[in-house]
Amino acid sequence: MSVNQQNESQLYIGIDGGGSKCRASIFCPQKGVIGTGVAGRANPLHGLEQTFNSIIESTKLALADANLAASDAQQLIAGVGLAGVNVPRLFDQVNNWQHPFAKMYLTTDLHTACIGAHNGDDGAVIITGTGSCGFAHVGDQSLLIGGHGFALGDKGSGAWLGQKAAEHVLLNLDGFAADTALTKLLLAHFNVDDAMGIVEHLAGQSSSTYAKLARIVLLCADNGDEVATDIVQQGAGYISDMARKLFAIHPSRFSMIGGLAEPLLHWLDIDVASKVADALSPPEIGAILFAQQQFAADNRKGV
Amino acid sequence: MSVNQQNESQLYIGIDGGGSKCRASIFCPQKGVIGTGVAGRANPLHGLEQTFNSIIESTKLALADANLAASDAQQLIAGVGLAGVNVPRLFDQVNNWQHPFAKMYLTTDLHTACIGAHNGDDGAVIITGTGSCGFAHVGDQSLLIGGHGFALGDKGSGAWLGQKAAEHVLLNLDGFAADTALTKLLLAHFNVDDAMGIVEHLAGQSSSTYAKLARIVLLCADNGDEVATDIVQQGAGYISDMARKLFAIHPSRFSMIGGLAEPLLHWLDIDVASKVADALSPPEIGAILFAQQQFAADNRKGV
Fold this sequence. Notes:
Structural class of chain A: alpha/beta
CATH class of the largest domain in chain A: Alpha Beta
Radius of gyration of chain A: 21 Å
Strand content of chain A: 15-25%
Oligomer: homodimer
Order of helices and strands of chain A: HEEEHEHEHEEEHHHHHHEHHH
């Protein structure tokens, strides 16, 4: 079988796994995307088993959506973009997994997001969702900034905005900080009436629980709440600085992706906001493009 | 049997459970403390099963240390001071536990720490260890401040100092913040050479892992490192404000306890630092005094 024949009948699966969700899309070269599935978080930093389970679950759902059998996973060539695998130990652990696919090509969720946003071309992306991070790929240069995760970094992310807001509201309720609309809205959000009620809902919770508070912080900031505005400005300032660092390697395109990309846009510095271009395809399509690029390269090398 | 006869032969166990350790001391009215045991973390906010296991484990160790059988737990009257049980749901869940003791009296770790620090008398305490919080008890008034836990509050605590330092060092390594001695010492602490190495050691870790970095932050601050000094001053400023809030109900004595009480002392405002008196007994002795007070009250009421 020649490379071309093989490619035309070959099914691919693109998987995008992060702090809150794992999305899978099955791609047929003749028909495009034929099935999709979404499962829970898949960040190896927070648990390998959960990551593998989420990949398998989203794959099963995508196969069922494409009217394929669960056993057809072994026909798929997988492109997998995961948070956390910029840590070499985690990359190796996931890469050595006895995965259910014909082949699996692993890279970071940032890399697949960037490939997707620019439809396979070079460029830069900043992801602001549950977490925040930046990535640029130009020729043989690639640049990764931030993405250190909840409680360590991820400034400007949903979890960071939510955590800063919760921190302030608790200081306010203890009499250490100013009372603003943020306090009332956060108490109402949890349907509680004191600091203890907030602590009960947030203590020991994952970044995705904090990220759910981000909309409240942005709403308050957009309505002029001083505390919320200060938090959002700090976060957006960091994102603007991050973009300028990515621009240093001269990416031809720049996109902001993730759930907070749109609401944060008007808080970014104008020189950064004016460079933002639409993401052309979502990260799971980037993962498919990555799998196709890698598989074609393997075939050229005769692997 | 009269109350006095009962009290003279009755063994007590005092248990102090928090974010990193659970300490148990067995007390005999004739001989004083006859056995002690230390087990892992016992904070119901972060897991009920782990809390119960740590209480049982520290009790077993204390019984063995006292040359008693494990089955003698059922002879003990227990005073248990735990982090997190200021949340009513958690108080109820621990209080309804099928515990191994003859009786169990439950309260917050702050309450037993305060009873211990002032040998059963009224007073105020601030605990700065893995977490931070304040408590004062004067007559029928009691005041609880802070203690909301890692990533929500606990300013000035070991985990907070460590987290702020890690956050800064990662910003520094990504080129967003100034380079100081703190960066070099944190990299050396983890024996790594980049941001990724630090993330690998800290991501998803508990507050006690962050708290281990506090000594480095304090060391840098004591040596004039600007970033570390700023972090420690922010934390100590919060602790000073917290103390003044506790003073509002006029406690006759005030103690600072926990692993960071001593190193933070010279960073506190002078009006606060000058009021600090030695803690007279540790929290697990406070838990014994609490059990004795409660048991005596029950007997007076004929319970």
